[in-house]
Design goal:
Elements lengths: L2 H16 L6 E7 L2 E6 L2 H6 L3 H9 L2 E6 L7 H11 L6 E7 L4 E6 L2 H5 L4 H10 L2 E6 L6 H12 L1 H15 L10 E7 L8 E5 L4 E4 L29 E3 L5 H4 L2 H6 L6 E3 L1 H20 L8 H9 L1 E3 L6 E4 L2 E7 L7 E7 L4 E5 L23 E5 L12 H17 L4 E4 L5 H14 L8 E4 L2 H10 L6 H8 L11 E3 L4 H9 L4 E4 L9 H8 L6 E4 L8 H6 L4 E3 L11 E3 L3 E4 L9 H9 L7 E5 L3 H15 L2 E3 L6 E4 L1
Parallel strand pairs: 2-3, 5-6, 9-10, 10-11, 11-12, 16-17, 17-26, 18-21, 18-22, 19-20, 19-21, 22-25, 26-27
Antiparallel strand pairs: 1-2, 4-5, 7-8, 7-28, 8-9, 13-14, 14-15, 15-16, 23-24
Length: 641
């Protein structure tokens, strides 16, 4: 009998001692980080609302209780009973019964009403029918991504359970080493923006944090081939943690499965969905550009299948010697500051990912309150000494001024924006400005993946700023459903009609003008001197967006909107830069994030910024707060303890 099997036997005995004698436990298994308890008496478990909480506390495990299949009501009868328990106002759209696990997945427009106060309705459902309810939200805006991910995971439930059981046994394996040290190896995004990737290792465990590409630099990928990374074999990684879905952090995650990785990816639920959307589009764009994609869609599906979603604040075992906790990063939907607690109080490391410290229209500001952090790995995109962004209110006024001036001269406003985050922020500004009469009402055309990304935002309102979440809960107040928003879905003909039509606003991907439908809009509207191209986000070195910002007016449009190979376009439209809408903290925000950290870290590694930015921020933090700071290069290793 293996050490894990002995451990499960011991846990089963401890559970049986804790629960009433008339409750039978038939099996105990690890599924990922959770301990799953099977019972013939799910109704008795549900009858005591505190029983599971008491067990989780005494065993120090995340516990899920599932009914033994022999105790279940037939699905048809159970569905009638479940619908009688749930209030009609909850808007249940489907019930899906899974007899192998005893779970019923309930999709509803208002999940909170299915859950009930402190889970009271969920317990009532189990008391009535024995099935364990799992609740998901019906997207207010139909999302093919959410629908496809849910359908795929439903079809793969059996294989996914096998994956989770294997991962669970790996997490709870016996520790083999008595050594105590922690290392961080930088595989990318040091003294540069993009290709984020780090290895966090202990004598027991190796964890990859992020695995992205570099905007504007084809072929520059993280140093995955080194011994600390995949050089020892992808299967030697214990876990992958994804901070958020932007491609400079997520683009190459599916590649790991091509190289033989078969372990878990830990991220938030919305990040999982956005990762699927963005990586599939990444493959599509590569194919359109005539490049050979580094992996296939099958590997994207593998990444989704292996994802274990975690919620903010949940402390989760991901290895025998590592606990992981996600906290809101304020950057994009589902973005997370990742906190690693290593050993039994040995060491604590936090990776900021990308952060925004102040509240925005979309998100509450980044969390920086942790039990302990000895080392912080901090993004430095705007870490330069002069990188102070315009106040958000002033930025919004500047954007409205450009829109009004362009409208008055009969032109159109074209805004290149990231599909995820920036576009939704701009949509909220425009919706309010039109509603309050600050700018004229006009169509706002959304091109590329923006509408689909917006639909995913509305699926997960609990990850949004408090007041916005409340508005989305009421369909008549959902700002993303405003009449002026039009999804471009008919391609080139519809774009031509918009270009030939009246004044309007176009928000289009890609945000750094590196391919995508924005190239078509430049061809259609770029020759119009009455129109304006408005930059609202960071333009990385080497991207076409940065070149246009720097004054280029002859731009290549190969293959886009009817352009042939070698075609160029002369831009006659004006260009404007409106700072303040970035999803990144500026210099002051980064300093405030560190200054107000509780507790303040002993060491800070400044990464994810150009050379000037990381060195400026590193120097300032050292001088102002008397902490050890570093501006590492790629392929450096830091050893702690």
């Amino acid at each position: 009998m293996s050490q894990v099997d002995k451990q499960l036997d011991t846990l089963k005995s401890e559970i049986e001692q804790e629960i009433p004698n008339d409750i039978t436990v038939t099996d105990v298994k690890y599924e990922g980080p959770e301990l799953v308890v099977y019972t013939r008496d799910p109704k008795r478990f549900a009858g005591d609302g505190d029983l599971i909480r008491r067990l989780a506390s005494s065993l120090r495990k995340r516990i899920t209780v599932r009914p033994d299949p022999s105790s279940l009501s037939p699905p048809r009868r159970a569905e009638e009973q479940v619908r009688e328990v749930i209030p009609e106002e909850a808007g249940v759209t489907s019930l899906d019964f899974h007899e192998d696990t005893g779970e019923v997945v309930i999709e509803a427009e208002k999940p909170g009403m299915v859950i009930g106060r402190r889970g009271s309705t969920l317990r009532e459902i189990t008391q009535e029918v024995g099935w364990t309810p799992e609740v998901v939200r019906t997207p207010p805006i139909e999302s093919s991504t959410v629908s496809n991910v849910r359908g795929f995971l439903k079809n793969e439930r059996e294989e996914r359970r096998d994956i989770l059981e294997r991962v669970g046994r790996q997490i709870h394996r016996e520790e083999m080493s008595d050594d105590e040290w922690v290392r961080i190896t930088t595989l990318g995004c040091c003294r540069e923006v993009g290709r984020a990737a780090f290895i966090l290792s202990t004598p027991e465990t190796r964890i990859l944090i992020d695995c992205g590409d570099k905007p504007g630099a084809e072929g520059e990928v993280p140093y995955l081939q080194v011994p600390e990374a995949l050089g020892a074999g992808a299967a030697t990684l214990d876990a992958v943690v994804l901070t958020h879905a932007h491609l400079d952090h997520s683009a190459l995650l599916p590649l790991l499965f091509k190289y033989g990785y078969d372990g878990p990816i830990y991220t938030t639920e919305p990040t999982r969905d956005l990762m699927g959307l963005l990586t599939l589009d990444y493959l599509d764009v590569a194919a359109k550009d005539g490049r050979t994609p580094p992996y296939e869609s099958a590997q994207v599906r593998e990444a989704i299948k292996h994802t274990i979603p975690l919620e903010y604040g949940d402390v989760t075992d991901i290895a025998p010697d590592v606990k992981l906790t996600f906290h809101n990063a304020g950057h994009i939907l589902g973005s997370a500051v990742t906190h690693f607690h290593i050993g039994d109080g040995l060491y604590n490391v936090a990776f900021s990912g990308d952060i925004h410290y102040e509240d925005t229209r979309l998100f509450n500001g980044a969390v920086n309150d942790f039990p302990r952090v000895e080392t912080l790995v901090l993004e430095s995109t705007y870490g330069g000494r002069d990188d102070y962004q315009t106040d958000q209110a002033d930025s919004e006024e500047a954007l409205k001024e450009v829109i009004n001036e362009t409208y008055e001269q009969g032109g159109k406003v074209v805004i290149p924006a990231f599909a995820v985050g920036r576009s939704q922020e701009i949509m909220l500004v425009l919706e309010e400005a039109m509603r309050e009469g600050d700018i004229p009402e006009m169509p706002v055309h959304l091109d590329g993946m923006i509408w689909e990304a917006t639909a995913i935002h509305t699926t997960y309102p609990e990850y949004l700023r408090d007041d916005l979440r409340d508005r989305i809960f009421h369909d008549d107040e959902n700002p993303f459903l405003a009449d002026q928003f039009n999804h471009i879905d008919a391609g080139e003909d519809e774009r031509q009609d918009v270009a030939d039509g009246d004044e309007c606003i176009v928000i289009s991907t890609s945000g750094m003008i590196e391919g995508g439908p924005i190239m078509s809009w430049l061809r259609h509207i770029g020759p119009d001197p009455d129109s304006n191209l408005v930059f609202v986000g960071y333009q990385a070195q080497g991207t076409l967006g940065r070149r246009i910002q720097n004054g280029w007016d002859e731009i290549p449009v190969d293959g886009w909107g009817g352009g042939g190979r070698g075609d160029t376009l002369t831009l006659e439209m004006g260009t404007e830069v409106v700072d303040g809408f970035s999803g990144h903290a500026d210099r002051q925000g980064l300093e405030n994030f560190v200054k107000t950290m509780n507790p303040r870290p002993e060491k800070v590694l400044c990464v994810h910024g150009d050379e000037r930015s990381v060195q400026d921020l590193s120097s300032a933090l050292y001088h102002d707060y008397n902490m050890r700071t570093f501006a590492p290069k790629n392929l450096e290793t830091f050893r702690f303890k």
